[in-house]
Design goal:
alpha+beta; 2 domains; two-stranded antiparallel ribbon; 12 strands; Lipoprotein-release_system; transmembrane
Length: 429
Amino acid sequence: MSETAAATAPAKGAKAFSRFEWMVALRYVRARRADGFVSVIAGFSFLGIMLGVATLIVVTSVMNGFHRELMDKIMGINGHAFLQAVETPFTDWDDVSARTEKVQGVKLAIPMVEGAAGISTQFGQSGVLVRGVREKDLVRLPGIAGNVKIGALAGFDKAEGVAVGQRLAETLGVTTGDKVSLLIAKGAQTPFGVAPRIKAYTVTAIFSIGMSEFDNVFVYMPLAEAQAFFNKDNEATVIEVFVDEPEQMDLFRARFEKAVTRPVIVTDWRQRNKTFFDTLQVEKNILFIILTLIVIVAAFNIISGLTMLVKDKTQDIAILRTIGASRGAVLRVFLIIGASIGVVGTIAGFLLGLLIAENLETIRTVLNKAFDANLFPAEFYFLSRLPAVVDTREVTVIVVMTLVIAVLASIFPAWKAASLDPIEALRHE
């Protein structure tokens, strides 16, 4: 009788997952030098599961962070719903915006004049989207309020200047007090046709939304000035609406139609950004599937490691069976071994993933300084920082999925061990 089997003889009537089964499983996991290769495979299985779980948690957290940050930035400056006039010019914008703002659940309704223009200084030029808004609306705009870095919005209507994004200011080489020139193709009507319009404005404020694409394209000017500049005589082009619950836009559409008596076209953020957010979700799903393969590969390592362990411990298994261990006991011993690798690897991966996800921006900053690199450049990813949002539900799915895969991977080798015929096994020893 082998030393392991003799020292761990089962007590009669031992219950499932008894102390005896755990003792045998732990002895097999702590392999001697002769069984070192099995331990190496078990180690790789552990590392594979740990890295797979950690990577899944970090990647899903980053994708969640992207979704939330982009949602906040886009909705913080673009609104949740958009009301545009049909049939007649939008000259009653003041009344419509007041009615809309009284709708239950509406936080803000901003009338504005919107148009594309060219902007230039002696240091550079760029294409921009000019928005004419009232001062009282601009200071309440979620993407602008609290994000003015230089200058101020006080007296914005009377100053007749413009507020520009920080990246645009850097491109043009301007700061507050400097002049910028705005140009549009359709200006005044002359005997020779429509002449381009160009006008110089003083930069009164510089804001930073935190999304490079927006900080490089938006220019705000007083509503009355924008109406004159774009030939919109007391008109607005759109009313942007911000609501408490953006996910309930169908409900708000019905409320808008009831509150606004004139004909309008209502569009919302889902229509304007559907392709963008759908693409983000598809990328997240694909990455989840690809990274799950790491866990599956680790599960195959568990299968191969347990299979080799069963082959190596054939004599021990046969002796255990002859001294009273049931097939179920042998099955559970090897299930414990495989599940233990999965559980420990999953817990380690869970802790590592949370640690990285919660400190991702710090890690990026350290790596940038250490390697003099620019990981996650804002001009490519639209955000000025690397976001990460840990979703409890998704983390739970990852952990449970990994544990199930590890247990399933252990079943076949454990069944093979339990199916060994002790007589046949000892005959060849």
